[in-house]
Structures are given as C-alpha cells and as structure tokens.
Amino acid sequence: MKKLLFLLLLAMLCISANAQNSLTGIITDSDNNTPLEQVSIYFPQLEKGTVTDVTGNYEIKNLPTGTYKIVVSYLGYQTVSQAIKLNTTEVIFNTNLKESAIEMEEVIVSTPFHKLQSENVMKVEYANIADLKNKGALTLADGITKIAGVESVSTGIGIGKPVIRGLNANRVLVYTQGIRLENQQFGDEHGLGVNDAGIESVEVIKGPASLLYGSDAMGGVLYLNPEKFAIPNTVNGDVNLNYYSNTDGLNANAGFKTSGDKLKFLIRGAVTSHTDYKTGSDERVTNSRFKEYDIKTGIGYQATNFKTELRYNYNNSNLGIPEEIGEQSTDRTPIKPNQTIDNHILSSKSSWLFNKSSLNATFGYTSNIRKEFEDGEDGAALHMNLNTFNYNVQYHLPEYGILETIVGTQGLYQTNDNFGEELLIPDATTTDFGVFATSHLHLNESNDVQIGIRYDRRAIRGDENGLINEEGYIPELDRNFNSFNAALGYKLNFFYNFVGRVNLATGFRAPNLAELTSNGVHEGTNRYEIGNSNLKNEQNIQTDIALEYKNEHFEVFVNGFYNAINDYVFIAPNGDEIDGNQIFIYNQQDASLYGGEAGVHIHPHPLDWLHIESSFQTVTGKLKDDTNLPLIPAKSITNTLRAEFSNKENWLKNSYSFITLKSVFEQDAISSFETTTDSYNLLSIGLGGSLEMFNTLVAVRLSGNNLLNKNYVSHLSRLKYDGIGNIGRNVSIGLSFQL
Asked: pLDDT tens-digit profile of 635-658?
C-alpha cells in the first residue's frame, strides 16, 4: 500500500513538473482587420479558455505540453477549429474571423472526442438553455420539446419526461453533471427532477447510444451540460427573473462564480412556484400547481497537467397530481394527491493530461427520495429511496497517425428501499459493469469513420414481498443480463458544402424492476399492473442516414432512421379487472420504429438578419403483429420567421424577434387502448434584447405561447383520458442582470 501511495505521489510530482506553456494572440475581423472583443478561445479537452479584450488580445496560461484542438467562436462569425502544438514557453496564435449568418457552432460534449458538430460522425442536436427560455419554455421538460425529434410525456406542466423518436422512460438516458441521473424513471408520472437553472445547454443523441453509455441508452441520450466556471482571475454574478401569466408562475435564480489561476468556485440557487394552469377554455386544472427549490454548487482546481472538479445539486419538488377540473383556485401549495421528491446529485470529474494521452475519471452519487401522499392518508402511502453510485473511467490513447482511440469502463451500484405502506417495486439491488473501446479515423478532409465495441453485464436482485397466493405477492428475483454492442459510422463531405452521415449501431436494455416484478395498483396510472420475471433483454439495431447542405445563406437537412427492436417490452390490458381497476400485463414482441426529421433554414443576402425556418418530424411505431405502439408522437411541422440584430453600438444590443406556428397532425395510428388525438395549431411570438442600465447589462425577453388560446390536447398528455386539455395562452416576461 505504501509503495502504491509513493508511486501515485511520484506521478503527481512528475505531472506538476512538466513544462508550462502559454498561448497568446490577437483575433481580428477578416474584412477590415479590426480587433474583436469578447471572442471565445477554448480548449475542449483541457476545458480551459478565455475571451479577448477590447484590443482583440488574449492570453491563456499554464497549458500542458502536447497538441490540442482550439476552438475560436464569436456570434455572427464562422467558428474556427484548429490543432495547436504547445511545446515552447510561449506560443502565438493569431487568426481572423469571417462574418457569417450561419449559427455559431458549439463543441459537442456528449460524444467522446469533443468535436464540433460539423466534425462529428454522429449527428447530435444542440440547444442553448437561454434560447429555450427565450421561446417561453416553462420548465426544462417543456424546453426540450423545441428540439426536432424530441417530445415529452406530460402530466400537466410540472411533470414531464423526454421522448426521443417514440422511445421514453428507461429507454432514454439522462446525464447531468457528467453522470447518469437515476430517479425511478420507469413511471410515466415521474419527471426529470432537474431544474434548468445552472444548466448551460442540452445535447440530444437520437438513437442507440449503448456503446457510450450502456443499458438504458437504447433509445438515445439527453445530455445536460452544467454552466462553466468563470474564466481565470474573474468574478461575476447574475440574477434571472421570470413571470408566466397563465399560472401566475414565478421563477428566480441567482448565481455567483469566481476563479483564480487554479482554484474555481460557483454557486446558484433557484426557486419556482406555479398555480394551477388554465386550459384553452380558461378553466384551471385542479392541483396542477407545483413548487421547486434548487441549489447547485461546485469547486474546481486546474493545474497544468491535472484538473478536477466537484459539483453538488439539491432539488426539492412538491408536485400536485391533477385528476380533474374542479375547484378554481390560485393556491400555490399542492393538495393530495401529490408527490414530494428530493434529489441529491454529487459528482466528481478529474483528468490527468500526459504529453500524448489523457485519463478521465468521473464518479457520481445520486439519491432520489420519492414520496406520494393520498387522500385519507396521514403519512406517505408510497415512499421509495433510490441510491446510486456510478463510475466512468476513460483513457484517451496517444494518437496514431489518423487514429484516435478511447478505451474505458463504466458501471453502477444501485439500491432501492421502500418505507411506505404501498409498494410498486421491491427492495432491490442493481449492479452494472461495462467495458468499451471506440476509435475515430480522420481519413482526409472529406472522410471520417468512427467504430466501437462494448460489453455490458447487469445483475438485478429483488427481495420477496407479501405472502404467496395473496394479492400483491412479489417473489424473490435474481436475474443477470448481458450484451455485446457495436457501432459503425461514416461521414462524407461531398460536392460543395454537402455532408452525409451514415450510422449503424446496436443497443440494449435490461428490463426494469417495474416490468419484472409489478403486482398491484399503480395509483399514478389508475391500473393494476402485473410484471413478468421472465422478460429478456431488449436488443435493437438502428440505421441513421443524415444529409445536409449548408452555405452562408441557405441550409437544408434530412434525417431518416429505422429502428428494429427484438423483444420489445410493452404493457397492455388483458380485459380483466381487480377491484374496479383494469389489469395491465407486461409482454414482449419484436417491434420497429421508423421516421425522421427534415428542415430548411434560409437567411437571404443582403437581409442576413432575417431567418426563415421550417422543420418536419414523423415517427411510426409498430409491433410485429402490425398493431401500433403506444405513446408515439404525432407528426408536426414548425414554421418560424426570426430576426436577429447585433446592434452593438445601439442602446438595444443583440436584439431578436420571432413568430412561430407549430402544426400538429391528427394522431390516428394508435394502440388498442389509446384514442385518436385531433390536430391543432399553436402560435407563438417573442422578442428581446440586451441593454445597459446603471453600468449593468440587462437582458429582456417577452414571449407568448398558444396566443390564440387554442383548447387542445397532446397525444402524449397523461391527462388526455380525464378529458383535460393542455395549457392555454401563456405570456412570459424575463429579466437577466449581469452583476
């Protein structure tokens, strides 16, 4: 043990002793050679960067020796991505940027090689949280529905969970703070449990990502990027206030962060409160109100060849469970039935940077405490504690010519404990272990290939509950699941500004505890559910084809997919009842989903400020017997007319306005226990910008959603079968103060 500690200490000393480098330079406009202020210069692998000053100059200190990719980005200009060799005390890198109406590119974090989307072999959707808020998003779950191919299964406005190309629940994995979020996501009425405060952006992998993330990523990944630490030797803060007319909703958050040369710190607190929402018929949906409190904090340390950070997030939600349109009230405290959720998320991420390779280690702990309260009950009828420890260790091998390779291991240890009178799933322990390797081959400027392989093993142990032959009995469970998965992708830049991507990937999902062990009434769905302990792995293979053309004034894309799933797990009624509750049983059958997204974006010259956007999305889901899968989103078209002005010299800076019409088609491709959902159109308008008040930069936004107050119901609303519509007209006002 002493020898091991000595070797670790020696390694740390060697790392610290490596030469320190600095990068300096000036960023200018290519047309007139004037310096550009507030340009971002960022090393994605090092997670280190800065911005230019008023003279266009910048400096980044304490950089390790080696070759690293640098990304230079600025709103209204083309993003520059280039490899920089750091091997002398001071390296100079000057560049000029070309003006462009094309949206600024961002580094994609959810894929292992941290490239710009234009360089990625896998198509990943990216959205900035601030942009989603500008569009009037009430919650994070509501905001992600603005991304093509992504919808949400909702219970009112407070509870929503992501649906990616027709797949949801345990088939979609959510990552936050670099670790997987575990919060009993098997239930339709179990929401995300993450507040958008302190979340900088969201990335969506639409398709099997089991190679990167293991089981439960079979349908895709929702990757939430936390806000970055402040750049070195700066202190800043902000206050953000939002009001929503429909619910008299209030949302406020404030943050503070500071960084020295090596130490970093940030903290952010948020509070949210909504009354019952009103439908398009101006009736309030009783007990759709909710409250939420959130705090996020982090501390980081960054030396030349070593960096580490520790983040913590506590989220407390008190959510009403709406069942009817009854008493019209503007009270803010939920009544029974309601659920309270406490989420604790602790994550640690560290990187060791060597001359030609790197080691990244991420560890996480999540605690999800879920309580549900019912009429006539004093305490919590349902009380579940889910505790999860997970790890992710990746070694980035030295580059060998055109080849980049990462090998790694991931896993988790999870316990579920029950303390309430009711029981949905038994006390249980789940253990995951996976190993993988993935490589990126940059063949030339036009051709890129990515390949990978992975092995996973999951063990689930569940305790016996109840008495044999009595209602609600759950036998002891001891199951093991394992799977090999592979992925192959190819990106081709052909002709002029055309890009094609073809990805073929397999994924898997082990059945969850609810599917294996359920035997009782699920109050959240008002049905008696019976699990099947003999369920097998779901295994899928998906083909994705993405084509896009982009020039300075015109963009068009077409994405298509076909997803074949063996042993798809689904729940359906068997025609019987127990105590007035329909019996639903879990079955398996091969299934397929297919569809895609297409869109166009026009920003005509010389009206570069004008943006005309249109996108279409469609998903079809079928079982092998040709019946339809449930909870498949309806087809939709979204048309937007948007204007953006930089206005840097005017009193209103970075102003914007938009008008959007979302047209949702009738959904009549339904399962045997669903009903047809009518078509509807939703009109939204918004505007905003930034201005200086008392030497403080203030961002102002105003948006209106469903402005025509359409009384409609979404096919993915769980309140549909209670005859309750979705939210009506809602006007939101937002203010953000930079301190």
From this structure: 999 999 999 887 766 777 889 999
Task: State which of 328-332, 420-424, 552-556, 696-700 shows the largest mean pLDDT.
Answer: 328-332
Give CATH superfamily name and number for 15-100.
Carboxypeptidase-like, regulatory domain (2.60.40.1120)
Beta 150-155 vs 554-578: how paired, if at all? unpaired
pLDDT confidence of residue 6: 43
Q: Structure tokens of 520?
A: 């009782």
What is the distance between the alpha carbons of residues 198 and 496, in angstroms, rounded to a whole number?
39
Domain boundaries of the chain, sorted by first residue: 15-100, 124-738
CATH architecture of the domain covering 124-738: Beta Barrel (2.40)
What is the residue type of 392?
Answer: N
- The rounded distance, in Å, linking the Cα atoms of 506 and 277 is 41
Residue 623 · residue 570 · CB < 8 Å: yes
Say whether pLDDT at 525 is over 80.
Answer: no
What Rg value do the Cα atoms of the chain yield, rounded? Answer: 26
Element (H, E) at 210: helix 210-213
Torsion of CA 273, 278, 284, 285, to 10 degrees: -80
Short-list 378, 375, 373, 338, CA closest to 191 = 338
Q: Can you list the alpha helix ranges (DSSP code H) found in 493-613? A: 513-517
Tell me the pTM: 0.92
Cβ pair 121, 99 in contact under 8 A: no
Tens digit of each residue's pLDDT (9 = 90 or more) over 608-636: 889 999 999 999 999 999 999 999 999 99
> Letter for the amino acid at 714?
S
Given 3-state DSSP classes, what are the helix, strand and coil percentages for the chain, each rounded to the nearest 5? 5, 60, 35
pLDDT band at residue 15 using 50, 70 and 90 as cut-offs: very low
Query: One-letter amino acid identity for 103?
Result: E
CA distances in angstroms from 692 to 36, 51, 695, listed in the order given: 20, 20, 6
